[in-house]
Amino acid sequence: MAVKTILSRRTFLRGLGASGAMVCVGLPPLEAMFNSSGTAYAATNGTGRGSPFESRFLLWFNGNGIPEKYWIPTETGSNYTLTPCLSPLAPFRNDVHVITGLDNPAARKPGPGNDHHRSMSALVSGTSFTGQGAGCASIDEVIAQKIGGDSRFRSLQIGVCQESFGESIQRNLSWAGRDRPLPPEMIPHKLFNRVFGTKDVDWVTRKRSILDAVREDAAALKTKLGKPDQQRVEEYLGSVRDLERAITSLPPEYSKVEEPDLSGDLKDWPRIAKLQTDLLVHAFAARQTQVASYMLSKCQGLSRFPWLGYTALRHHDYTHENVETPQGMRILRDICKWHVEEFAYLLAKLKSIPEGEATLLDHTCVLFIHEHAEANSHKNNGLAVIAAGHSGGLKTGMHTKMTGTIGDLYWTIADEIFQSRLSGFPTADRKLSAVV
Amino acid sequence: MLSCQRPILAVALALALIEPALGQDFFSKNVYPILQKAGCRSCHAEDGVASATRLHFPPDSASNQEIEAFGTSLASLVDHENPELSLLIRKPTNRVAHTGGERIAPGSEDENLLLRWLRQLPKLVPETLASKLSGRSAHKEIGTMRRLTHSQYNNTVRDLLGDQTRPASQFPQEDFVHGFKNQSEVQSIPPLLAEAYSAVAERLARNAFRRGDTHNLIPCRPASWRDAACRDKFIRQFGRRTFRRPLTQDEQSRYVQLFAREAKHSGKFLTGAQMVVEAMLQSPNFLFRMEEDSRPEWTSYIVASRLSYFLWDTMPDERLFQLAAAGALGSPDEVEQAARLMLKDPRAQQALDEFVSQWLRFDRALNTVKDRRLFPQFNPGLAAAMTEETRRLVAHLVWDRKDFRELFTAEYSFLNSDLASLYHLPAPNEEFERVQFPAGDRAGILGHASFLTLTSKPEETSPTERGLFIREHFLCQRVPPPPPGVNSNLPPLSEDKPRTNRQRLEIHLSSESCSGCHRLVDPIGFGFEKFDAIGQRRETLALTFFPARGDEEKRKPTKVELELDTNANIQGISDSEFSSPKELGAILAKNRECQMCVVRQLFRFAQGRTEMPEDRPVLEGAFQTFEDSQFQFQELMIILAKSMALSSDARSASAEGSGFLFRKGERKVAKSDTKRHPQSLAMPVSVDTRQSFRR
């Protein structure tokens, strides 16, 4: 709930930095919100002054897979031709690296669920679907657990298209651990309130006392419980701590963040996608978090596409019915092109935010993934991934066919760009030098 | 490196002494892998389709010792005179007709190895066989806390505060696991849900006192914001209702402090109260139900909560609280009396409706999508009517004390005009009036549009899906998922190759890798082919081929009609040939596994978990009561409520617990009775979430 505030929400700031003025009462200083090893990531800054801008990680997803014929470029190297699906990326050729050929081997291990369940769990965590959820933490959460500790939000999960078969593994992209989904925020004004809603100090103090009481209740309860129940309570306590941090740290003054219009069609996906992207980019820019995930549509997603004229069936059905026909292929091409358009919108937004001498895109690493490559055949060996941004020396401007697994890619990025010092990642074998 | 949690199996075993003729690990190293490769466990498990056989494999996670023990236990299934003639070798090689087909090639090296093992089993000393191990593994330690489900949260805040807004509809949705949305295994509270609880608590607390104490939450008239006596009384009483048991001394002081600071700051009694309400609604003592506690004075309160959340899907009422306070919920008689009274209360209907809507997957019926060209009459209103029909039939059977088996055989239903039109019947005088069906194929839940629709695809029916639903929801049998990478698209239909589903699915039944499992489901679904994807009856299959976009001018849609053969049967149930939903309904109603499955489903819902071997006495006792009462569902609810309410721990009745189930003079379940129910109970198995089986 946004209440009349002390701070003006629309004050301009002349560049970000530790000088951001903030009125806090008994709150941690802004410096604590900087990752102190952020100075090591000055990669493309080029000023020689050492940038205080930390690297951001974004896991970006749309469900069901792609029509390879219209998506995967035939040539490799820097002079590849953009395919119809990738054409929206034309202004961003030098900001992206199209990576094809990576394997997702954990998707093929026998176990419960259908291909989508297995592929999804394997895609985000490198482990098998448990029957309820992912087998392990997802890559974005693995990174967040290493670098997110100082941010107001350890990580943010954002979503757009709601239509889904409804199971946990299909609805959620980020996983805090085995069978522990982190549901995405799907509604723009709720996301806004969460991240940018400013509250007055009284409200904050009040909430704090309440959460103190809740924490005391939980601590007392824990002592009486057996191990599995203790874990349950501990998990709740963790969520309460996150909540406390989220509401008690006032966001710093920041350049205008428009509150999303409360009216308007909540199912107009292109509009919602852009609103959510705007908020995500502002959240990064305002240092509210370093790690986020963006789920444009659900795994095995069921979106309809009225703005494209495709409403007879839903996305998942389109990927399996009549796909051999020219009309069927055209439909898939148009759908996937729309996905890439939203991705291009994201890149444009990231690029439009100055950070020091560079832009936010220069300090971000985005990974655009899907649970399958060729959608109809549920192909999971030879995924199509786009890495974007310039954080930490990401190589961009080309299309590379790689061997190796998606786990290799994650490990490479986590260690080389985010200094996570992981000893590995499920299904990772080696680092991919062609990436960073 | 981030480590994933893994379930821990604590194994307490004594190893059998095996003649070292074949070496200590011979079975687990050489023979077991063959059986794993052959995929035996997918059917030969306690909840698999071959559960009625005597061959049950240990779970996936079994340790080496357990596997060795299992290998030794095969001695009881081998023909001691002629091991080569044992079914153990003749079935998997299909020398004797095996429902699972040929899993081990006759004459192969694999067969030889298995035979070597079987040959030496009769040589084992009888004593070692007597100490045969069933490979008991301690189960993953289960928790005893259950979070309020979203429907329970809604009902509880309505009963606690008078709030009618059903705020939990804004929470991140719950997921179906083991067929229900309330399984405690997956009831975590991620940050997004914690935030939602916080925001809702704030709103509810504010609204509670917006225009003064409109809901009479304060049991006294405070003289001022300083009135400590009134404050303490309010906190004590409201706290007892919210935490569903008396507050501890610490809790009382904690909330008094919270109240006092706020009331002083604002100068108003009600803002102090509001603060307390907001905080308590976020306490784990409110959000979670403890299933056990060390304080004996809280036992009756726990019983009260168990009863009210099972039978009413909401918090206890004042009467139950008083019984709890008086310790009057301690004996089976008292619990039964309370339960019977509770079933007469209208709140019992909301609990039954919640169970039914989950068990019969109303969500799938409500969210399904149909091709608009083929089914223009299908819309959300019709889908809602379909679920209402089913809801009403079950409600009638339960509250009007009918034989619950009529769920499968009822030759009547409760229809509105849209449904009547769908069923080609005249419109009823009143919406959802009881309508008798004319003689025909349609009867019971298997003839309901809800079931027929949710098991179909957008354009056509799916026999596989229908067979699967019946196996899982009405026989409690798990069917293994398709192997990874398999292309489960049916061959496409085209004008020059129009085919029925039976013809297209022949691939499943003729291919070695598919038939083992598909023989279990497809042949059931064929019996329903005369009911289309939205439940309408059709005598023939009418296929419509639409012209491609752009060709509409030149060509009209072409129609082809094909004959339908609806001969069907259920593998594993003898004399189960049928050719219509009505005939299958009659078979299921008489079938023990189906009747027991009803008990198991209600158990899963009531307990928030799947059945474990320790639950066997309770389940068999409940079944007995259900059967003895002529399958009155209310009696099943009462008996399960009794056993649940009084069990000393959440892992359900021990022998002492099941003793509570029967009064003097009632039949007790004797050990020999277990032979009447050869179907064993499910061990916790990996969940096979089938909702989106369609790939």
Could you walk me through the main structural features you see in this protein, from its secondary elements to its overall organization?
Helix content of chain A is 32%, strand content 12%. By secondary structure, chain A is α/β, with parallel strands linked by helices. The longest helix of chain A has 26 residues, at 326-351. The model of chain A is unreliable at 1-50 (pLDDT under 50). Chain B is mainly α. Helices cover 44% and strands 3% of the residues of chain B. The longest helix of chain B has 20 residues, at 380-399. At the A-B interface, helix 2, helix 4, strand 5, helix 6 and helix 7 of A face helix 7, helix 9, helix 10 and helix 11 of B.
Radius of gyration of chain B equals 29 Å
**Which pair of protein chains has the largest interface, and what are the residue counts?**
A-B, 91 and 75 residues
As a whole number of angstroms, the C-alpha radius of gyration of chain A is 21 Å
Quaternary structure type? heterodimer
Summarize the structure.
Chain A has 436 residues and is an alpha/beta fold. Chain A has helices at 68-71, 115-125, 139-147, 168-171, 188-195, 201-222, 227-248, 269-285, 315-318, 326-351, 406-416, and strands spanning 56-61, 96-103, 156-159, 174-177, 180-182, 291-295, 354-355, 358-359, 364-369, 381-388, 398-401.
Please outline the helices and strands.
The complex is a heterodimer of chains A (436) and B (695).
Chain A: E1 56-61, H1 68-71, E2 96-103, H2 115-125, H3 139-147, E3 156-159, H4 168-171, E4 174-177, E5 180-182, H5 188-195, H6 201-222, H7 227-248, H8 269-285, E6 291-295, H9 315-318, H10 326-351, E7 354-355, E8 358-359, E9 364-369, E10 381-388, E11 398-401, H11 406-416
Chain B: H1 26-37, H2 64-73, H3 87-90, H4 109-120, H5 126-130, E1 145-147, H6 150-161, H7 191-208, H8 228-243, H9 249-266, H10 269-280, H11 284-287, E2 288-290, H12 299-311, H13 318-325, H14 332-344, H15 347-359, H16 362-367, H17 380-399, H18 406-409, E3 412-415, H19 417-422, E4 433-436, H20 449-454, H21 463-474, H22 501-504, H23 506-510, H24 512-525, E5 541-545, E6 558-562, H25 581-590, H26 592-607, H27 616-628, H28 633-646, H29 655-659
Antiparallel strand pairs in B: 1-2, 3-4, 5-6
